[in-house]
């Protein structure tokens, strides 16, 4: 249907935020244990959605964050510290993005007008 905003189940395959993975599958995918994923949830690094039956469901975006946490933990960083590092990395990335956007905006507003 042209112009329709309805999504189909196939559209969810490309959605990084769609909670498609069960805890067991998510843990398997990142090479961790369900307990590790629960620890990340307790630290509020990732908050899985719940299925109608109350089971945790994880998105690909959340799994990327969990995989980064696992990398840090595997090098000896405590889970709480790994979560804080990831949050700070995310905040730094956002600040850098905003800074670049503000610089572009400032450059556009200070560019000399044509013919002057």
UniProtKB/TrEMBL annotation:
One Pfam assignment: MerR_1
Stretches of the chain forming a coiled coil according to its record: none
Top-level taxonomic group: Bacteria
SUPFAM superfamilies attached to this UniProt entry: Putative DNA-binding domain
GO function term, MF aspect, one: DNA binding
Gene Ontology biological process terms in this record: regulation of DNA-templated transcription
Spans through the membrane: none
Domain HTH merR-type: 20-88
Protein's name according to its UniProt entry: Transcriptional regulator, MerR family
């Amino acid at each position: 249907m042209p112009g329709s905003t309805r999504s189909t189940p196939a559209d969810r395959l490309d959605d990084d935020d769609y909670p498609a993975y069960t805890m067991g599958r998510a843990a398997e995918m990142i090479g961790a244990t369900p307990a590790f994923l629960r620890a990340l949830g307790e630290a509020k690094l990732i908050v899985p959605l719940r299925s109608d039956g109350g089971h945790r469901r994880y998105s690909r975006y959340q799994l990327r964050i969990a995989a980064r946490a696992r990398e840090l933990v595997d090098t000896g960083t405590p889970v709480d510290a790994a979560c804080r590092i990831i949050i700070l990395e995310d905040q730094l990335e956002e600040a850098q993005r905003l800074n670049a956007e503000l610089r572009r905006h400032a450059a556009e507003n200070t560019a000399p007008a044509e013919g002057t």
